[in-house]
Amino acid sequence: MNNICAELTVVELGSGSPAGSIAGMILADAGARVIKIEPPRGDGLRRRLPSGFLVWNRGKESVVADLTTLEGRKAVQGLAASADIVIDALPIDRSDDYDVGYDLLSKVNPRLVYLDITPFGHTGPYRYIKGHDSLVAAKAGLWARGAFGHRDGPIMYPVPWGSFGAAHQGVAGALAALMVRETTGRGQKVDATIWAGLEPADYYVTVVAQLMKKRGEKPTGDSRSANAASRYGVLLTTKDGRFIQTSTLLPKQGWALVDVAGVRDQLQDERFADLPSFPTAEIAQEFEDILLTAFRDKDLDHWVPRLVASPDVAFEIAATCEEGLDHPQIVHNGDSISVEDPVHGTIRQVGPVAHFTDTPLRVLGSAPILGAHGELPSGPAPACQPSRDETAPEQALAGLTIVEMGSFYAMPYGVTMAAALGARVIKLEDPAGDPHRRSFGPDVATAKTTQGKESVSLDLRTPEGQAIAHRIIAQADIFVNGYRAGVADRLGLGWETLHELNPRLMYLHAAGYGTDGPYAKRALYAQAAQAAAGSFSRQVGYWSAAERNLDMSLIELQAIVLPRLGQVVDGDSNPALVVLTAIALAAYQQRRTGVGQFLYTSMIGANAMAYADDFCTYEGKPPARITDDDYWGVSALDRCYEAADDTFVCVAVYSDVDFGRFAELIGAPDLASEPRFATVEARAENDAELLKEVTPRLATRPAPEWEADAIKLRVGCVAVSMVGHAIMTSFDPGLRESGLTVAVQNPRLGELIQAAVPVRFSETPGQVRPASSRGEHNRSVLLGLGYDQSEIAQFEENKIVIPPDQTD
């Protein structure tokens, strides 16, 4: 078979945009011809994030077009006339100014799918905030973690989560729009936002915050407050200063770790009996102290073989991104590959987003030299042959049926996003239900992960339960299995069995470590998954270095280092986004061919992809940008500052033009003409001096005033939201006005405010639907399969089908 997107031509616009570059990379890896439009000086990422540019732009062609000129605009219009997808990651409204916006290009090419990536969409009070990840995260509340850490004020993390999410959501939306085009012959506009790209990083705290408010309590935006009396993960430190991230979500995993540490005799008291949950926060801390003391006594080399030998311990060493390239499972999965670059030689980097057995994704080359392209397409695109019914479906993925079997967050939330785009999702649950339903309070966590799904509760250990599942899957398009290798086979739901049953079925195995290999049967959870890919070096690089804590006592370690290692937990959200993209690629391929195949993703591979700008190595590679030792930022022009009246601003200024505007904003226009600050290179060399110039000036006014004036001047400077990501999502009126959040009636928890659909479609809008309880749809699904009421009653009596009850 051809590569999945081999017949597609993509035109990518947007200098300096990680989101646009990542979206183009995914499509290029899938076989699309991606033509990257660059200004005469080249994409700004070539200079600002050179390693990111090399990976995010692999397999593309480069065309130079100056969009400020009539000639440049006509060149892009000509390419768009024969394209299938245009990726617009230009600053908001700039594409219309340059005559390359959707309204104009869709008239030239009615079959065009136009993916528009903006910070906060085209409406609402935040629409003109510049689309830099630092700014969007600051406004979204992601930096508001200082009150729970080692100091007050915002904590900045230099990872492009919003762009990564927007790219994956945008690609999924574009592929869904292409599937609609197969029916109607028409393209449409797909809107993705960097804000929505961040949304998967909130796992359940929005729900906690809103329930607190309903109880008359002050909502909190930090999950640690809600889980103070539990230890779902313990960060351990060895004698030689290395960190080991463990996950202890299930009791057996906690006790397995206790046995490796050799401290079971210290935990015989009944107050530890229900670990990882404890009667009080103090007892939870006592449990953690016992483990910390044990692990601090020996070097890493002592602990690793013992941890590996215990299959129930979920752990990973806190590696750097470059160390992650050599992780045995990452290498086995093909997620560590080598690409030859004409300038830099061999570049080791992350592999494609997913692994398809019959239509494998391939990296066909490194990032292009500026202006290097083949013969360009010209003339109108080939006519799309619509079906007889040219009426668009109500939703983009309408008609797609997905059956899901898995638990917790990473895989299920990826499927939830597909449900929001219109797919029908049937979730198979065992008699106890997804354990995620009980992890953080009844139905709190699954208020997100079961949205828009139909839940069927079966005992899959019985032949009768498996037979029911087979009948469901026989009519499905995609089966998604999130369990470790071997689990589905034992339940009669392995690839070979289901492929024989339904040859057109796409079977996605979305596990922690992958389908086979040295770690495939081990459990893996978010914090450990991200640690393996390099989250410590990227998020908290300074304090994660072993030499910082070698000579510290345990008390010093706990007082100084550990509070500075708090991270954004992205180990589940990154895989969720990758699962969404894998589903979209699988659905697109199956819709066009009618042929099924096996594919897999992994949590470690997805996290490696999220850190792709540093998850690479080559000769002369510059070090990754990390924050200062107190986490204010990476430079004077990409950091948070104290403003007046106990407020904070976040600044992201990358170009010479933007610096001139920023200097005007802070009342020091002469700074832009000073030789020490006149160019990007000069500012980097004199960063400490620039910091001294900027800091006192920004302290003179409150942050909202700075933001208002910055937007007028088109400067990257916003007031940092200090209420937190979950509080912003739950209660911010600006997000509601923008249509980025909506109210949904949850059957158990009442009305909840949550994120709207991940992407918007101009013709086939998605829909956010309520969450489901375990077994809620048993009867409706089984009746739809042809079972009658008496048969279903008999299944219930024999405990093959388990009806819902009031305690689920």
Care to describe what's here?
It is a single chain. The relative contact order is 0.14. It is built from 36 helices and 26 strands. The chain starts with 8 loop residues before the first strand and ends in an 11-residue tail after the last helix. With 808 residues, it is α/β, with parallel strands linked by helices. It is globular.
* Secondary structural class: alpha/beta
Oligomeric state of shown chains: single chain
Strand order of the largest sheet: 3-2-1-4-5-6-26
- Strand portion, in percent? 5-15%
Find the count of extended strands (DSSP E, 2+ residues). 26
How much helical structure, as a percent, in the residues? 25-40%
Shape: globular
The value of Rg in angstroms is 26 Å
For the record, give the distance between the C-alpha atoms at the N and C termini, rounded to a whole number: 46 Å
Number of helices: 36
Q: Which whole number gives the mean pLDDT?
A: 94
Low-confidence stretches: none
Largest sheet, strands/sense/barrel: 7 strands, mixed
Key descriptive features of the protein:
15% strand; 36 helices; single chain; 808 residues; 7-stranded mixed beta sheet
What is the topology?
Blueprint: E1 9-13, H1 18-29, E2 33-38, H2 45-48, H3 50-56, E3 61-64, H4 70-81, E4 85-88, H5 94-97, H6 102-108, E5 113-118, H7 133-140, H8 161-184, E6 189-193, H9 194-198, H10 205-214, H11 223-226, E7 235-237, E8 243-247, H12 251-261, H13 281-295, H14 300-308, E9 314-317, H15 321-324, H16 328-333, E10 336-341, E11 345-350, E12 355-356, E13 401-405, H17 410-420, E14 424-429, H18 436-439, H19 446-449, E15 453-457, H20 463-474, E16 478-481, H21 487-490, H22 495-501, E17 506-511, H23 526-533, H24 535-539, H25 541-544, H26 554-561, H27 573-593, E18 598-602, H28 603-610, E19 616-617, E20 633-635, E21 638-642, E22 648-652, H29 656-665, H30 680-685, H31 687-698, H32 703-713, E23 717-719, H33 725-731, H34 733-737, E24 741-746, E25 750-755, E26 759-761, H35 778-784, H36 789-797
Parallel strand pairs: 1-2, 1-4, 2-3, 4-5, 5-6, 13-14, 13-16, 14-15, 16-17, 17-18
Antiparallel strand pairs: 6-26, 7-8, 8-9, 10-11, 11-19, 12-18, 20-21, 21-22, 22-23, 24-25
